[in-house]
Amino acid sequence: MSKLLVTGGAGYIGSHTVRALLAAEHEVVVLDNLKAGHREAVPTGVPLIEADLLDEAAVRAAIEAHRPDAVVHFAALIEVGESMKDPARYYRNNTAGSLNLLTALKDFGSIPIVFSSTAAVYGEPDVVPIPEDAAKRPTSVYGETKLWTEHMLKAFDAAYGLPHVNLRYFNVCGADESGAIGEDHPNKTHLIELALLTALGQREKMMIFGEDYPTPDGTCIRDYIHVTDLADAHVLAVASLLDGSPSTAYNVGIGHGFSVKEVLDAVDRVVGTPLKREVAPRRPGDPARLVADSSRIKAELGWHPRHTDLVGIVESAWKWHSGHPHGFEG
User: Fold this and answer.
1) CA 172 and chain centroid, separation
2) I want to staple 257 with a disulfide (CB 3.0 to 4.6 A). Which of 2, 73, 128, 221 is the partner?
3) Is 90 one of the catalytic residues?
4) Whole-model pTM?
């Protein structure tokens, strides 16, 4: 059994990954500033350090106190639109905060790290499905902050021998099968979450931004990866680093996409009532199709998604949202 420090472990993806790591018999410590995460999402008995990565002394104290064998790094601001309006906040939090963490990991013996990256590092892709060696041209400040952290990790590995795995997620969705934890972001921007909150009467209608894309039904297509499958990928990435595997990057997606209309149709089916929809113009920078080529992680780590049925994915999210219509506070 290894001891792991999980930054952002009280958040959506982090809390699901904490449970997967515990199921794999790891000892887990969570570090989270709780500005977007939730104390209630951390399992009973798991130590929670309430601290911010921008507090360099607190980060170093946590690592010195717990001496983790590896770190899983989720803590970040994640809203694309907000990052364009307040880039200083995103560079400070995501980039400077990560630098504080990496510096501490280097100083305590180059502790291996799994980094929560994003498909946003690719920007507008030249080829779909997108392989890991595709050009990195992020179109948002959020994507840039994640790519800068990847650059820092590469430099730290070359200079200090800091082993790492970058996991580039596509559209994360769904919830734990228990319905006890799920998605509860301060700012609601994810399609399935927005649709289910609309079904609960918390929003009037669903906006479809563009139906004139070069796709079968004219709406954008995205690769939707269930959060528990993503958590499994983190468990495998941790194991590979602890076994001494070299640093690398993996895409994590199911390898095919669903359109906006297909997602909304699935939500209608699950909740039993059609949502009110309104078509609006395209949003600038929205690619027609973003789908992962996840063949590398399948071949090298043996990862395979267990949740590929769209209705099943929506059902798991609906179990959480219908049982917790106002999130953890409800």
Assistant:
1) 6
2) 221
3) no
4) 0.97
